[in-house]
Amino acid sequence: MKSNYFETYAIHAGYDNREHSGSLSPPIFQTSTFVFPDAETGERRFAGMEEGYVYSRLKNPTVCQFEERMGVLEGGEKALAFASGMAAVSAVLLGLAKTGEHILCSEGVYGCTYGLLQFMEERFGISHSFLSMESAEELHAKMLPNTSLIYIESPINPTMKLVDLEMVVNTAKEKGIPVIVDNTFCSPYLQRPLELGCDIVVHSATKYLCGHGDVVGGVAVGRRETMEQIAHTAQKDIGGIMSPFDAWLLLRGIKTLPVRMDRHCDNAEHIAVLLKRHPYVESIFYPGDPDFPQYNIACKQMKKSGGMISFSIKGGKEEAQELMNNLQLIKIAVSLGDAETLIQHPATMTHSGVPEHERENMSITQNLLRLSVGLEAWQDIWADLEQALHSLMKKEDQAIS
Hints:
Elements: H1 6-12, H2 39-46, H3 61-74, E1 78-82, H4 85-96, E2 102-106, H5 111-124, E3 127-131, H6 136-142, E4 147-153, H7 165-173, E5 179-182, H8 187-190, E6 200-204, E7 218-222, H9 224-238, H10 244-255, H11 257-277, E8 281-285, H12 295-301, E9 308-313, H13 317-326, E10 331-332, E11 342-344, H14 356-361, E12 368-372, H15 378-400
Parallel strand pairs: 2-3, 2-4, 4-5, 5-6, 10-11
Antiparallel strand pairs: 1-7, 6-7, 8-9, 9-12, 11-12
Family: Belongs to the trans-sulfuration enzymes family. L-methionine gamma-lyase subfamily.
Pfam families: Cys_Met_Meta_PP
Keywords: Lyase, Pyridoxal phosphate
């Protein structure tokens, strides 16, 4: 099946119903092991001399269908599925970095990624450093003789700051350093880092790829040789693999990814404009805002501006928590990309494990909130935010009077 359109591949890539008794929906191969027709076949498969299934930790037909679809959607040669987004990040970093090497990271990463980097430095002697990645000159200045990987979030969680991926790739290629991008906030529908020259893309598949809040999973996509190296080491031996049922749910979720992303983006555009105008909101962080510092980068490398908005309000942690507690429709939860609109407080939730001074360097303040704009009517999302903000303003006015 060939197509020029993402929407078609999101539904059909990686599955041929003729191979499965005409079943429109892919079957779930809910099995731990596979039977060999004879002992010699088992020997050949274990030796890598023959293709075929052996054990679901190594390969499973349903999981393979998800991997093939993700490879097509990201424009990569091979994808690997994992039990969580952090399992994917861990497998890639542990599979490629060696003791004594150095990882260069974007300024700000997901809290658990920060924890993993700390763990790798303390236990395995793999160091890391953070930088803004705003220019090739800065990258050159921060590269060490032992820098072996560049790891980027773009947009960065939760500040939404963007990194010019082409600039980083061009600079990294001069030194032969691979570039890894966490593409969770965009999904392959909005941003395709591999087509910009990056080497590996990772996702928390839990988020937009699933879209329904009922799966925990991860995926990494890249060149075949590199991904097979990771598959034969970090994935196989650490064993953080995806279950067949989760792979099936993700195949189902991805079918509607383009439609959902369009709605997420449209809703976020409305909400961002209204938040920016509100007198109790100090600032918004949203790639689609023309005043956003990296707006030109967003226009260059993102199809649309995404469904994520961070914003700061007057006051501090107490006011931020009170706003969340006043919400009625919007749910307080730390995931994103679901049909429901979700809000969280990064300083005390997703990034609470990051030391305070590092959080400040990442611009994660006590009055910062992160909003994952859902699929509800945007008017209802705004009505809920507006009444919660109004409640804070009313309390402030009463305190002054």
